Amino acid sequence: MSGRTERPTSPADDGRLDAATEAFVAHRNLLFTLVYEILGSATDAEDVLQETWLLWAGVDLGTVLDRRAYLIRIATRQALKRLRTLGRRRESYVGPWLPEPLLTAPDVADDVELADSVSMAMLLVLETLGPTERAVFVLREVFVLDYDEIAGAVGKSPATVRQIAHRARAHVAARRPRGTASPAETRAALEAFQRAVETGELQGLLDILAPDVVALSDGGGVRHALLRPLVGAGNVARLLAVGWWRREGARGGRSVEMVQINGGPGLLVRIGGDVDGVVAVRMENGYVTGAYHVRNPEKLSRIGQETAVSR
């Protein structure tokens, strides 16, 4: 026994904590989405939300004029700290690094801007931004915060934030998919992938692959995956027809299911009943220009249940 006397909590303490909990829960899905878009990792986003809660629980709510804005500020600052750490980790990552995929509800696609912002293609574009640029872009373009609010979150002046936002917007515009694809077009493309994986029938797949399509797969050094990007419609089609994932599936019984991945149609691949990976695609002008296959088991832990995203 330490002999230390614990200070009893008062009704005022309990009331303050209840109010803090209520505000945090009300904005939790928004905060998760924000941090996930900054980090590209749901696992790390959850850690940042835990850090955000601990800091928020100690705030004097009587001094807070806008609880949503205050929570966003805390979460953004913690996310930026985590992003700089993740950048060092990714330098030694085995093979291509892909964002951690989320199983999302079908209604996420109804909010076109939200669905686009959490898509695998957009998250990969955001990876090409610096940490502050990425945070500013997400806060301005996705969550539509004003420059003063963003300045408080990233520790820059409003004038500097405006310049960063302009630069980040131009950077993303030059790299994001050109020409929007409807959910029906994306679904048709993935059905062609599905047929190729299940039957080896390639003509339907070749019809919708862009000549310079790029395939990336992320095994994290744990699962068999491509160690570098694969380029070209013929190469990508042959990978699906005779590649390692067909051989592994032949041993364990492969199934492919259409699901909602990161706000759009995607494929969930199972081998022997266990989740083996997910596939998302990037569409431009009716053709698949990017195929993203995540197999790293550490990135598949959330695929068993839907993750709520909002803004």
SS-based class: alpha+beta
What would you call the shape?
Answer: globular
Q: Could you state the oligomeric state of the chains shown? A: single chain
Helix proportion of residues, in percent?
40-55%
Rg result: 22 Å
Notes on the protein architecture:
With 311 residues, the protein is α+β, with helices and mostly antiparallel strands. Helix content is 52%, strand content 15%. The protein is built from twelve helices and six strands. The chain has helices at residues 11-39, 42-57, 67-90, 112-118, 120-126, 131-142, 147-154, 158-173, 183-199, 203-208, 233-242, 244-252; strands spanning 209-218, 230-231, 254-261, 264-271, 274-284, 287-294. The protein has a six-stranded mixed beta sheet with strand order 2-1-6-5-4-3. Strand 3 (254-261) and strand 4 (264-271) form a beta hairpin. The protein starts with 10 loop residues before the first helix and ends in a 17-residue tail after the last strand. Mean pLDDT is 88; it is low at 1-9.
Summarize the structure.
The chain has 311 residues and is an alpha+beta fold.
